[in-house]
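During the reporting period, we have paired protein sequences with backbone structure tokens. One record among many follows, to show the layout:
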Amino acid sequence: MLALRSLVFLFVLPFLVSAEFYSSKGQDEWERIVGGTKAPNGSVPYQVSLRWWGVWHFCGASLVTPRVILTAAHCVQRARPIYFKAVVGTNMLRAGGKAYSIRKIVYHENYDDDVIKNDIAILFTDEEIEFSSTVDAIELNDEPVEKGEELKLTGWGTTSYPGRLPNDLMQLDLKAITYEECKEAHKNINEVFETQICALTKAGEGACHGDSGGPLVREGRQVGIVSWGIPCARGKPDVYTKVESFMRWIEKTLYDDDEDHLRFLNKRKTNKH
């Protein structure tokens, strides 16, 4: 499956690019994420950067509760909590934010890295994350996403393939496409499942290495987790784990670890109505 694995935004890739992160690139070369623009400071308080030893970014993630972080299984399947931290509260990789240690990793028991299915994981932090104007949880989407709906992707993925990580958090506006359209687009590449959601704009715009595990959002609610795609922005739709399909798994995982987390989610749902 080497050819297939080369398509995936694997979490091990940052070992290859992290040394380049601190190179003396001009500011103009940090400006784009493959068609994206800089996210305004404080506009994405749920964004998390997963970093080896708290320094080198390797995947994105999102803050779900003060102790729970959502990401992709392929980001953390072979990782040990002791070797990485979650950084929140900053739009920059080289400045600001606060790092939190990870207590436990739980990735989906049926995650299949051969076909990239059930690509979802939950991280539990050692201590409670302090919320502020720049740090806050995102609501999880439990409703269908229709074709053509506007979605927003954020992340620190490389700005080209191959390429370097930008210092600034980038954002990109996308549109949802149907499962049938996505399946047809990838029919000779890899299977697409109904537990996934796909989004696309045009060639030259899309996710890339380092965006993996990050949030895809519709109107302030997370609908997807960056899973895989053709590196990078080649005009094929990117594939995301569909949050809606895994709500029961998420709630069960939180309940099994600590009932307070489930109560937190239920409280948020109650406050919405």
Summary: The chain is about 20% helix and 30% strand. The mean pLDDT is 82.
